[in-house]
Amino acid sequence: MKHFFLSILILILLSSCGGNDDPPPAPVGANLVFPLESSECTTGVSINDTQSQVTFEWLASANTDSYTLSAVNLETNMPQTISTAATSASLPIGKGTPYSWSVTSRNSSSDQIATSETWLFYNSGSQTTYAPFPAQLVSPLSGSTVQKSIANEIALSWSGADVDSDISGFEIFFSDQNPPTSSVGNTTSTITELVVSVESNTIYYWKVITTDLEGNTSDSGVFEFKIL
């Protein structure tokens, strides 16, 4: 009988110490609402000649108790961030300036995070026409290592957007020097991929210049990758 009660006590202790091994639910990425994708934001409250206060909005996401808003000045690549438990937040940003923005969802019980899509917009300024958004370099990703094709080629791909919807074309610069100064091709607004020749064990640099019908241009910035 003594051994029976001892066994029962051990089982109780084991069950009480076992706890719940299920991981906490991971947060879900938020859906962005405003400023709209590839739009001109005209709702900012003027602060001074160079800045206005813009309110960003998104939808609540599951398993989330806080959000971090990030707005990146695409001319300087400088980010601004703010954390909040709400589904909106305001930041002072430059007038007449292109921005990208996204929201990161967090749950205090989980180590995982989830990031929304990234949207582009121009914060309204005094100009009546806008330069295109800097092209978003899609592939190869910066810092990646890439396998070339049998023909010793890889494809560069990107995406472009413009508030005025008047992109006329793209010029692609590509070389093993940084920054790349060799123009390897021009494409129309509907073609966002270009195949280039590469060599093994070489680091390459590339960027895309976008031009619109008004002659305005934007620079994507330089990405680098290595060929196996």
From TrEMBL:
PROSITE patterns: PROKAR_LIPOPROTEIN (PS51257)
Record keywords, A-Z: Signal
Family annotation (InterPro entries): FN3_sf (IPR036116), Ig-like_fold (IPR013783)
Source organism superkingdom: Bacteria
Signal sequence interval, chain numbering: 1-21
Tagged with keyword Signal: yes
This protein's record includes keyword Signal: yes
Protein name: Fibronectin type-III domain-containing protein
Species per Swiss-Prot/TrEMBL record: Flagellimonas aquimarina
